[in-house]
Glucosamine-6-phosphate deaminase
Amino acid sequence: MEFINLGNASLAAQYVAIELFREIKRNPHTKLGLATGGTMEPVYAELVKLLKSNPVDLSLIQTFNLDEYFELDKQSPKSYLYYMKHHLFDHIDIKPEQYYFPDNDRENLDEDNKAYDELIMKEHPIHLQLLGIGTNGHIGFNEPGTPFTSNTRMVDLSEETIRANARFFDTIDEVPTQAVTMGINTIMQSDRIILLATGEKKQSIIRQLYDMTQPNEEIPASVLLNHPNVLIITDNEASPYK
Ligand code: GLP
């Protein structure tokens, strides 16, 4: 697990966007794992700029999002599908058949979750997985205490996560209390992982991660200690070096 503090948040976002862009350029069949959240908004803005100013064939790439709120209408502006369209997909040359999300309705949930994992593992797992981090160390929506062996499934969100995500809703009561998320095992199958953390609210969890030598299920992101290719990018505010 390598940590790099890039100083300011826009530079950090630019760096991550360049890594995504280079991954796509290197491999036209690339499979990307994508994340949502406020931290990723400038990453997708930079990626859109790079894709507009450089000729790249996107027709064969596939993207897999980490999570989606359970039973939230996919057309809702609060859904992660809407987020991804708004920040990325609507601005680049990609067709809906190329981007995937965990299914978020009750019907056939277990089969659909299994199918999502199989789709991710089929032929080749994800080449580059992008991650944000919750203030409690969650990755995707894998909350503290999640077994490291977990696969894609429905989860209950913690109070802390509901509070943190309330800023994207009009009132806290509108925040869904459940979601469907890629599991920790699913995430760990990726070839390469970049976790981006910016802002002062992330400093404490990044510092904890930096100090850890053994993974602990109470801090889901600490599983990354077991992965051979993880880069954690921060700005000054989230930096572990202070
Ligand atoms: C949500 C997402 C996570 C994301 C986290 C941090 O809970 N499910 O994938 O990492 O929020 O979001 P933000 O970047 O807004 O702090």
Q: What stands out?
A: The mean pLDDT is 96. The chain has seven helices and ten strands. The beta strands are 2-5, 31-34, 62-65, 67-69, 99-100, 128-131, 153-156, 178-181, 192-197, 230-234.
